[in-house]
Amino acid sequence: MIADNQEAMDVDTDGASLSKRPPQRSTSVPFQPPRNLAVGYVYSSEMTAHFNPRGHQEAPERITRIWQAIVDEKYNMKMQWLPIRPVTKAEALLVHSQSLWDLVEAYQYMSEQQIVDSEVYYEQLSLYVMPGTTRAARLSCGGVIEACLAVARGRLRKVFAICRPPGHHAEPDQSMGFCFFNNVAVATRVVQQLTQLKRILILDWDVHHGNGTQRAFNDDPSVLYISLHRYEGGTFYPCGEFGGMTSCGEGSGLGFSVNIPWPEKGMGDADYIHAFQRIVMPIAMEFAPELVIISAGFDAALGDELGECKVSPAGYAHMTHMLSGLAGGKLVVALEGGYNLDATMRSALAVTKVILGEAPDPLPPMHASETATETVYLVAKEQSKYWKNIDTKSCEPRQEIDSISFSIPEVLQAHRAHYLYKNYKMMQVPLLGFLQSPFAGQVICTPDLFENKTLVVLAHEFGNLRLELESAMTCDLNLERSYLLDFTKELMRWINEEGYALLDVNLYPKPFASVAQNTKRTSNKKNSERYDDTTALLTYLWDNYIHLSGAQKIVFIGHGPACQPLMNLIDARFNSITRTVKAVVQVVGYSKVPLTPKKDDFRSWYAKCSCVLLPANHHILQPEATYSKKKHGVLCPIEELQPVRIVMKGLPVIQAFLKAQLAIPLS
């Protein structure tokens, strides 16, 4: 909380800010008396005090050029100037650590020799520092706070915060990526504390993922963070998996982080508008924010050498126009990146025109690229777990000619069904209701399902090439999942030799089938997982076939994306499952290891009968990871780096484990 005895603001009964010791305000812009205007701006030339004498992309001209363009067009005469002031310590600590605050404060006292000595260290963090850094960083953060408070309190409808240095890379404990304080994150927390507005959308269109902003709110359902950024399999700055499409938040914030990661450079207006229409706006409207903040980096603009994308000023204007329709028009635009001075200036000017009420310049006829439509489709599949407004089918990148063609997954699934019938006389299991359309023909069993005393249930997503390739970050069709087919062949042969019954469940829905999303995330369910159609299918099979089969010893084997639905089934039918299920094998590869529910009896049982296969270099096995046998089950590292080969190399481990578990006498 912002305490009364801090230098920060107090709050009166009307929510207006008071200050016992007002922080020093910038005087670089002449004072203007209040005018009857709905749009404002924040700007101060004092933020140019942070600069690199040898030159740098994050230069003072980034804001001076924008300001000069606004003045030249006389837009400043239509906007209310908001006095800028430094962020206070109490405000900064709402997001950042004490150590980060102390470090930024110390920059103003650095000698020239200290700056030289520390240069290599700060270059590794993509930073440069100097005595002027402290004042500029505090003003930049304080300026965004004042902009957001002015809108949140109803003084203005929209504000453009022309501030630098940027902020969205700054994490709670670490400044990085040209950023010192996370301006938008701190402003969001201040607004939530000092006003009645609690539900806030942060839309980040900077070409880089805002790792610091997502980190600040990763477990917070009151803040929806959406980022469109160049990702390239996690190799584009800030690098790593945090900006990937499956990074959706954690805990109660699961589903409130939305990443749209472009896999290559060159994305343009059509691609961004397509993502807005299919992902951003549907989710934003379902969230219904009370305030919208744009982390407005202009480094995806055409001509920016760092971002290498092709968004035009009109493209930025149209995105701003769409966002202006949310939250009753309450919108703050906060400058982030943008390193081509001309492109940044033109883009910022186009955004300014829109927040002043002008219509965006028209865009020519266009269509999204194949890369963009595929990316948006994959994001839609991921986000449909959490948001009802996402229509995955409408995002499917199919052409009209596809109605007379077969997809590769369909061909693979048909071949597999034929192979299993020919060799093991396995038959289709009939399904009813909404499960029939997406999963018809994908559940098959041996003829002795209701007679055999030992039953193996194999759940997988065979045919899902997007998840079965060597890496989720690449799409190398030369590595199509023939390995998985070989693994199942060997497993079928072994099961047949042992005399067990088999129920084979393909959880990958038929391509382009209409899958009912009738069990979405609920806001009051903390750590909610995906209780969707895949879990519904497994539960249906348990209730109508497996539980009634008469088998006294049952084995569950999950592969890849099917591991979590299998865990959901065990949780949903725990009492009946523990009577007959003697072993659970999870072949997770590099995927997230499913967590057991926080139930002592569940975790005790799972620790005794689980075997989780994963590569020896899986992140959960690293020294800094917090592995728990109760939470994750018994981990079995396999010395194999390629996920597609883990199932093959781990087959002897699976066989030995199952024999041992099935040899345990019935209780």
Structure in a nutshell:
Keywords: Chromatin regulator, Hydrolase, Nucleus, Repressor, Transcription, Transcription regulation. The protein is an alpha/beta fold and 667 residues long.
Strand tally is: 18
Question: Mean pLDDT score, rounded?
Answer: 86
Parts with pLDDT < 50 across at least 5 consecutive residues: 3-23, 25-31, 465-484, 514-530
- The amount of helix comes to 25-40%
User: Could you tell me the radius of gyration in angstroms?
Assistant: 28 Å
SS strand fraction: 5-15%
Shape: elongated
Span between termini = 56 Å
* Largest beta-sheet characterization: 8 strands, parallel
Strand order of the largest sheet: 4-3-5-10-9-6-7-8
Category from helices, strands and their pairing:
alpha/beta
Q: What is the count of helical runs? A: 24
EC number: 3.5.1.98
Keywords: Chromatin regulator, Hydrolase, Nucleus, Repressor, Transcription, Transcription regulation
Domain Histone deacetylase: 56-354
GO molecular function: histone deacetylase activity, hydrolytic mechanism
Furnish the topology, listing elements before pairings.
Blueprint lengths: L9 E2 L5 E2 L20 E4 L18 H12 L7 E2 L7 H4 L5 H9 L5 H6 L1 H6 L6 H22 L5 E4 L21 H12 L5 E5 L6 H7 L5 E8 L26 E6 L6 H19 L3 E6 L16 H11 L7 E5 L5 H15 L14 H14 L8 H4 L12 H17 L2 E2 L7 H4 L3 E3 L8 E7 L4 H4 L13 H17 L2 E6 L26 H14 L6 E7 L3 H10 L1 H7 E7 L12 H10 E6 L13 H4 L2 E4 L4 H7 L1 H12 L5
Helix pairs in contact: 1-11, 6-7, 9-10, 9-12, 10-11, 17-23, 18-19
Question: What does this molecule look like?
Answer:
The structure is a single chain. By secondary structure, the chain is α/β, with parallel strands linked by helices. The protein is built from 24 helices and 18 strands. The chain has an eight-stranded parallel sheet, sandwiched between helices. An eight-stranded mixed sheet has the order 11-12-14-13-15-16-17-18, with helices on both faces. Strand 1 and strand 2 form a beta hairpin. The longest helix has 22 residues. It is an enzyme of class 3 (hydrolase). GO terms for molecular function: histone deacetylase activity, hydrolytic mechanism. Belongs to the histone deacetylase family. HD type 2 subfamily. It comes from Lentinula guzmanii. Its main location: nucleus.
